Amino acid sequence: MDKPIIYLFISFAITIFLIPFIKKLCLRFSITDFYEPRKQESISKVRLGGLAIFAGTMLSVLMAKIFLGELIFFDKYFNIFILGSSLFFLIGFLDDIFIISPLIRLVSQIFFSILIWSEGIKIENISLALFPSLNISLFNSDFVSIVITIFWVVGLVNALNWIDGLDSLAIGVSSIVFIFLYIIFFQNNEFELYSITLIILGSSIGFLFFNLPPAKILMGDGGSYFLGFNLAMMTFLASTNSINGENYFYLDKAFLMLFIPLFDMSTVIVYRLIKKRSPFFPDRSHFHHRLIDSGISYNVT
Asked: 211 with 168: CB under 8 angstroms?
């Protein structure tokens, strides 16, 4: 068996093990989801499931670094992965407990994205896989690169957070994308990247068992921010190729992998602007809400 596959099962097991303890702790201190009319259910549920995903991933990565040091060096991406994952999870985790204002969260996400850009996750040029001759240069402008990178990271983090409105939807979509990412990295012999992807996938599947309808626990902002950042980083790395010494980000390739959250976010923003509402005003304009409101059954009993 390929050694990184073992760590998929390890991260899965750690997540499965942690969730019951996290649930008991949250119930003891009343850290539960709050009711809103737009939500599908009126039953309060523990919303710190993201802690299990984060801990399961990080503990497994640490074990892989210790025991697979001769195979996984983590030199190139390890610091970016640890830094970004920890920062985005932390701001989401704090919001799950204390309810932080949207402005503070947004400013924090922008600041974190700039840090990640400085570490090497930067969109420098854009291309389209369907139209290889159409290459868009950013004119070697750091400012333009920072702005576009911020839009990509912050946009995807919030896009995944926005579709976390039905049991297992966000974690299910994330797991499917991580499977595709694993296949891409494996085919490209990116050992380090497919190892990290497998570990995150293991934690995601472990959480999915508790998030299937009717969910026993919610991932909260901590979980969605953590997964959203890693989807943004991994899809960027999987969709970036070198052309004549220049790195090009294949936007259509990345968009195809992340079609569901990006499509939902785009349509919601347009709908709210048409209705002259703030794009950040929560309502039932999400695609999954519209499907349910149209009469499609979603059994949560």
From this structure: yes
Torsional class of 74: left (φ above 0), alpha (ψ -120 to 50), beta (otherwise) = left
Tell me: pLDDT of 37 over 60.
no
- Give the closest residue to 238 by CA, choosing from 250, 256, 228, 229: 250
Give CA angle at 60 (240, 214), nearest 5°. Answer: 90
Listed range (22-31, 51-60, 82-91) with the worst mean pLDDT: 22-31
| CA pair distance 194, 187, nearest whole angstrom | 9
Tokens (6 digits) for 184: 């891409």
CB atoms within 10 A of CB 120: 11
Nearest-5° Cα angle at 84, 79 to 90: 125
Give backbone dihedrals phi and psi of 104, rounded to 5 degrees, phi first: -65, -40
Using one digit for the tens of pLDDT, what is the confidence trace for 238-275? 999 876 667 889 999 999 999 999 999 988 888 778 87
The reply to whether the predicted model has a pTM over 0.85 is yes
**Residue 301 in this model has a pLDDT that exceeds 50:** no
**Distance, CA of 130 to CA of 117 (rounded, Å):** 27
Q: How far is CA 157 from the centre of its chain?
A: 6
Amino acid at 129: A
B/e letters for 159-186, b = 16+ CB within 10 Å, e = fewer, are: bbbbbbbbbbbbbbbbbebbeebbebbb
- Is residue 101 helix, strand or coil? coil
Task: Determine the residue type at 52.
Answer: A
Q: How far apart are CA 55 and CA 244, in angstroms?
A: 40
CA atoms lying within 13 Å on the CB side of residue 191:
13
